[in-house]
Amino acid sequence: MKYKDRSEYSRLKSKIYTRFFALTAAAIAIVFALYKLLWKNRGGDLVLYALLKIGFDRDAAEFIYQNYFRNLTDIIWIAAVAFIFLIMLRLFMNWFTKYFTSINRGINALLVEDDNEILLPPEMSATEKTLNTVKHTLRQRKRAAAEAEQRKNDLITYLAHDIHTPLTSVIGYLSLLKESPDMPKDKAEVYLDITLEKSLQLEKLINEFFEITKYNLQEITLDKRDTDIYYMLLQLTDEFYPVLKKHGNRIELNADESLSGRVDAEKLARAFANILRNAVSYSYPDTVITINAARDGENIVISISSRGKTIPKEKLKSVFKKFFRADESRTTKTGGAGLGLAIAKEIVTLHNGTISAESGNEITTFTVRLPVL
To answer: Could you tell me the residue range of the domain that residue 260 belongs to?
Structure first.
């Protein structure tokens, strides 16, 4: 890398050296010309003539020349050389600072929202390349942020629309129950079942709103402690029992009961819960979701596999992006706000781990690798 930097700036350095030596040579040439044309063999006469012209008599003029010019000739010419060199140096600095002006213009161009390339002098191609790379990166990040914001706004709009439907049903059926106290018991139970179902759906939608808010406003920090990972996974399977039962799924846990590591148990449980929730949402009914967990050298590897529609490769690359939903329709029956896997990835990354996804032959597997310590 250092060699490459030297190579990229070689033109600039060569131009600086050339300009510096040219100015130095010009200063020497000017002094030499002044010496040859004005001073050599006639310098004394010129000084005497000038002194006589300004009012000194002959004796005074010769005294001044002898004591202040002839005896100090070396010092005078050194001073002359230094003076001319300083003038040349000033010219050199004025030329050199033009590069900083060019860089400032390039930096200001980073703030301009256009597709024009930043142009610098040819000898500053390395800086030009860097500034253009930064400009392209900033433009891409801004575009990605705008797209993410748009997706978030769309999701909020869709969720707000979907909230209205179950809420209307809950209010309607509760109103019917209140207005008809003598309603037959079997019919009242049907209304209560529908009300409960719509209430649960409403709870899910509200939780998605909270998830969006937490993701955007809350910075995730870790509190790592020695944790029984086997028990954590076992506890998760118990917590998911109602959801699994409703969908006809069950979890099969294959893990060593002594499996443990230094992690933030609460955050990591949230990550695995998000992965499991995704597995349940997209798995076929009445299928098994398998959790395999084992130690592999200095890492703990946990994989969660489910049977469902194969995720296309082009979508598989985006499953960990925030607000991405494999189901592009706006229904909330499958998939949530598109943040669960994004949050899971962020938590795993903060643990210095990795998370990946594979899908084929109607089997989708999410694999998490975590360092033991």
So the answer is: 225-371
